[in-house]
Amino acid sequence: MKNNTENNPRIYVGTYGKYSSGSISGKWFDLTDYKNLEDFYKNIKEYHKDEYDPEFMFQDWENIPKCLIGESWIHEEIYDYVNELKDDNICFELFNDFLNYYYSFDFDSIYQAIEEMHERLRGCYNSLEEYAEQELDLMTDEFEALNNIEIPDSIKRNLDYKGYKIDLDQGGFIFTENGYVFDFSY
């Protein structure tokens, strides 16, 4: 997958000084525009040069996992995340969904997290039910091929796609708001 700028990690940066004065004045900064965290801070400091010693406030962000940012802090390894995904052409939206549903950032490295994401990703669908239908159809085809038989259409028509979707949902499969299906059943 190729990154496009609408899915890049971005932060809306204001300052606590402006906020306490009643202003949310700030600017969106695309993290892929900077080499590292030091370069990012240098640029946001330049933008907020109208304050002597600005205390930055990260008022909003997109495509950044919750475990890497908060209102007043950024994880020191955020550029490992940004650079690795940018270099490997992995969609920030996809990886962000994975980390947000995985509930922890318990990885030794970004590489390990990406490997885990690929292992658990089942694809992008319109719904978990669509994924369940595809999986049941594939299982039926594989059963026919392995056993050298043909399952009658009258039986195929009665496959319980909705029931299988419920089983997947309760069994640890996650359908994200961006349409990705992950298998967290193990």
Secondary structure elements and pairings:
Layout: E1 10-15, H1 16-20, E2 27-30, H2 37-47, E3 56-62, E4 69-70, E5 73-74, H3 78-87, H4 92-102, H5 110-120, E6 121-124, H6 128-147, H7 153-156, H8 161-170, E7 173-175, E8 180-183
Antiparallel strand pairs: 1-2, 1-3, 4-5, 6-8, 7-8
Helix pairs in contact: 6-8
Structural account:
- The radius of gyration is 22 Å and the shape is elongated.
- Strands 2-1-3 form a three-stranded antiparallel β-sheet. The protein has a three-stranded antiparallel β-sheet with strand order 6-8-7. A two-stranded antiparallel sheet has the order 4-5.
- It has helices at 16-20, 37-47, 78-87, 92-102, 110-120, 128-147, 153-156, 161-170; strands at residues 10-15, 27-30, 56-62, 69-70, 73-74, 121-124, 173-175, 180-183.
- The two termini are 26 Å apart.
- A hairpin with a 2-residue loop joins strand 4 and strand 5 (73-74).
- Helix 6 (128-147) packs across helix 8 (161-170).
- The model has no long low-confidence stretch (mean pLDDT 86).
- It is an alpha+beta fold.
- The longest helix is centred in the C-terminal third of the chain and has 20 residues, at 128-147.
Q: Main β-sheet: number of strands, strand sense, barrel status?
A: 3 strands, antiparallel
Unreliable runs, pLDDT <50, ≥5 residues? none
Estimate what percentage of residues fall within beta strands: 15-25%
Q: State the helical fraction.
A: 40-55%
Q: What do the pLDDT scores average to?
A: 86
Helix-strand topology string: EHEHEEEHHHEHHHEE
The neighbouring-strand order within the major sheet is: 2-1-3
Helix/sheet category? alpha+beta
Outline: elongated
Q: Could you give the count of β-strands?
A: 8
The count of helical stretches stands at 8
Rg, nearest Å: 22 Å
Our measurement of the CA-to-CA distance between the termini, rounded to an integer number of angstroms, reads: 26 Å
